[in-house]
Amino acid sequence: MIKDLLVVGAGSAGLMAALALKKKIPQLNVRIVRDPDIGVIGVGEGTTPNFPRFLFDYLGISRKAFYDLAEPTWKLGIRFNWGPRGRFDYTFAPQLDSRWGDLPMPNGFYCEDEFSCVDAPAALMREDKVFHKQSNGCPDIQPWHAFHIENEKFVAMLEKLTVQLGVEIIDGRVQGAERGDAGVSAVVLDDGRRLEADFFIDSSGFRAELIGKLLETPYMDFRKTLFCDRAVVGGWQREEEEILPYTTADQMDSGWCWRIEHEHRINRGYVYASDMTSDDEAEREFREKNPKVGDTRVVKFNSGCHKKMWVENVVSIGNSAGFVEPLEATALMIVCSHTQTLIDFLLHNRLEPTPSMRDLYNELTHSTWLDIRDFLGLHYQLNTALDTPYWRRCREETDLSDLRPLLEFYKENGPTGFARYRMRSSQNDFGIEGYFVMLVGQKVPHGNRHQPTDLEWQRWNAHREDLIRKAKDGLTVKEALAYVRHPQWQWHGDRAAG
Ligand SMILES: Cc1cc2nc3c(=O)[nH]c(=O)nc-3n(C[C@H](O)[C@H](O)[C@H](O)COP(=O)(O)OP(=O)(O)OC[C@H]3O[C@@H](n4cnc5c(N)ncnc54)[C@H](O)[C@@H]3O)c2cc1C
Q1: Ligand 1 cavity residues, CB under 6 Å
Q2: What is the set of domains in the chain, with CATH numbers?
Q3: What's the pLDDT band for 492 if we cut at 50, 70, 90?
Q4: pLDDT band per the 50, 70, 90 thresholds, residue 33
Q5: Within a 10 A sphere around the Cβ of 279, how many other Cβ atoms?
Q6: pLDDT at residue number 497
Q7: For residue range 373-415, what is the model confidence (pLDDT) as tens digits?
């Protein structure tokens, strides 16, 4: 039976895992070892809606603590400046996998020419507003939002809450490990200390100290589907720019560029393929399109994941398990969902996990990674807008063989929810809606086209105009932040009263 659990690493992955394990299984003795000299990844991060659900609903972290300590801004979705339309918005609510009651076909069939303001968050994004107003003027904070956070602030908050819960954090560098009958029995630090445990979480980031270096678990790289392997990262202090309620993804000559909104800083990064452009050339294009960028640094990565995330008595969570470029901001989403799955499985087996439970965990987690690989690959493969060598390669070479049944179904039947039965089952926040937004957003032709009548168009336009009118009356991020920071603001779930 697992009694002592050691987490290697105190980045957001290790701390979220430690916090959740201790909270949900209080009888566990949970400790963390981390090396302050190595530090945490320290990037600006976008998230998806499972992140607030995990923090507030699953872990019971108070919204006040989170807003005070992590200082997030809200994210309603991603603005893609991308593809033949030039622009489309991906929100976290069903825009296309949805149908108005007075129309005969799902929304996707009405978006061939104009695809905008199809749901409330999309209309808010168009107006640079983040929430509707309640009748008393306060923001109506709906669950279809995620956040932008700064990694260091978030990590500092998690550290505080983890220690409050009774988790011990030990400073030291893991240098090796001892093996016993049940797997790893202790990790050994560079000063000779030994830390014993019956179960280990490897959250050591890209170093993958246990799952990779020690256990030599094979790594599956995604280079046949995702060609980018570097990012040049920079940003600037916000001046007069509005805080946008979404992440922006701009297509670039050899990849794409993110824009993440923090309250006082704008964070940008150009993700590119190093075999299609040089670091110097990427930096030049990055600066040319973002003249305000200050110092930059290049981050190298190898998109892919370990073939197994759970080996013997070691489970890897975070960048140690796998990594893909942040095109859909999936890393923390995976940390949340896999941590929950692990805890469910451990509790079901009363802390004596069976081999078949471990196998199921590996199948589920692996399938999540493959799904994300293919979903990101689709973003690239469908983009017909640019004719640079990089984008030609994306169209010609991106391996999406696992998506063939779904894409063929779409080609014949269009954006109908029945397509979900052609998807691999896995745990993510995108679902069939994510695929529809990419397919419709990039104008991929399909059969079974619908010719709406004049009456249908009237109804369709009335719905959109109503959404736009309400959105125009909404609050900006700055205005909404002022409300939630007001001393009289009280959180009652998301629908707070001012
Ligand atoms: C350019 C870029 C952009 C990103 N954007 C996003 C985004 O928009 N959204 C998103 O969800 N994610 C994003 N990510 C990923 C995200 O930052 C991470 O997945 C997340 O923060 C978790 O990191 P981690 O805890 O796994 O690793 P890290 O933050 O690297 O932490 C590793 C920990 O392990 C410890 N450690 C390492 N080796 C040892 C050792 N030998 N002994 C002891 N301790 C050790 C370190 O001290 C540290 O505490 C991005 C990543 C990159 C590179």
Answers
A1: 8-14, 33-35, 38-41, 43, 45-47, 151, 173-174, 203-205, 207, 209, 231, 233, 269, 299, 301, 318-320, 326, 329, 331-332
A2: 4-45+151-224+307-362 (3.50.50.60)
A3: confident
A4: very high
A5: 14
A6: 53
A7: 999 999 999 999 999 999 999 999 999 999 999 999 999 999 9
Residue nearest to atom 19 of ligand 1 (CA): 331
Q: Model pTM?
A: 0.95
Residue nearest to atom 38 of ligand 1 (CA): 204
The whole-angstrom separation of Cα 313 and Cα 296 is 39
Measured by CA distance, the residue closest to atom 41 of ligand 1 is: 174
CA of 461 to the centre of ligand 1 (A): 45
Question: Which of 7, 43, 202 is the best mutation target for the ligand 1 pocket, counting ligand atoms within 8 Å of the beta carbon and taking the most?
Answer: 43
Nearest ligand 1 atom to the CA of 173 is 42
Distance 298 CA to ligand 1 centre (A): 15
Two structure tokens written together for 302: 């190898």
Show Cβ contacts of residue 392 under 8 Å, excluding neighbours closer than 6 positions: none
Average of per-residue pLDDT across 354-373: 96
Q: pLDDT category, 143, cuts 50, 70, 90? A: confident
